């Protein structure tokens, strides 16, 4: 498996198994299966002039209940990660500690910009000390297991180490837990990443948000290009946020589908451990079958799941299964009955 490969590559999967893309059941991607109601004609967008970001800054700042000078927008979460890692190198940070397993773009960015990488196994030794004056990365809720952590005790460790802290809250919208944005006032070296593409079901629309104090954001903006989001990106996010019923509907439908998926997994012999998740996906430790073998057995049924063997501290026994519609999960249930492990 490729070192930094991730889920959701539907086109390659469809080509491999020789089926139409619309026939693929993608349980590998952690994108919300509920979509916002967009009441906007995208054909009416004027693309002859450069985009202006004043309005979208105000809309997003209001959504997260912060000031416009506390956010910077990026062309997606991955773009934000690479920009931040480059910016932190300007600040002479050399060491990066990643609480792992974690989203693999962090490891990729740390390697690209020449950091000394340290991993902390959050399953076994989460309160281990970190290096002084280092960069710390924590994904919350985590991936690929979806656990939400109360970070109060960890903040004490990070403060003692004078660490620059990056918290990725890309999946927080799938929960009712509070954001750690509240710590920005008291901890000057804190950055929080928000990827709107996960919850608002728009991986093809690139929108990432970094939240920090005014001083940090100004320094970050000084090293950014003038135009990053297109008019299409801006208008999608703008009108998605106008759907006031979307959040409530998403939380309800994802909760029901996740319970259904948990029941499917609990009654199947496919797994030896099912991790409790607060996000829209579930990590599974397989029983008597590898992730690659499971993927191959699911291919005739056009189903994708995420092989997690390239995550740190995981191996070929782990898969991540996304929470999707009940109809998609029903097909998985039927197939699990046919798979002999």
Helical proportion, percent range: 25-40%
Total helical segments: 11
The main pleated sheet reads as: 7 strands, mixed
* Radius of gyration, whole Å: 20 Å
The main sheet orders its strands as 2-8-7-6-5-3-4
Tell me the structural class.
Answer: alpha/beta
Distance between the termini: 22 Å
Q: Summarize model confidence as the mean pLDDT.
A: 91
Into which percentage range does the β-strand content fall?
A: 15-25%
Mass-distribution shape = globular
Query: What oligomeric state do these chains adopt?
Result: single chain
Could you tell me the number of beta strands? 13
The helix-strand sequence is HEHEHEHEEHEEHEHHHEEHEEEH
Parts with pLDDT < 50 across at least 5 consecutive residues: none
